[in-house]
Specification:
This protein has one domain. The chain is built from four helices and no strands. The longest helix is centred in the N-terminal third of the chain and has 16 residues.
Length: about 80
């Protein structure tokens, strides 16, 4: 699990998710490994067509949240 930044902001997590989506679509091994580790059903997460919502879920899970909405709620509540 990744450690939450000292001053977390939703935009940083959005950028991480978008970067993961691009990297997975480009076939980058580390991005695909992240999908395999953190997506609840990695077999259904085709890297070549990875949706942003799936990348967001992976990012949220890397920080210990079950899904993207939980991460967003945590950030809205002032961490």
């Amino acid at each position: 699990m990744l450690e939450m930044p000292e001053r977390p902001h939703i935009d940083n997590f959005r950028r991480q998710a978008r970067a993961l989506q691009r990297a997975a679509r480009a076939g980058e091994p580390e991005a695909i490994a992240r999908l395999d580790r953190h997506h609840p059903d990695p077999a259904s997460a085709d890297p070549k067509t990875l949706q942003l919502s799936a990348a967001q879920m992976v990012v949220a899970r890397e920080y210990g949240f079950a899904n993207w909405p939980q991460l967003v709620q945590y950030l809205k509540n002032g961490s």
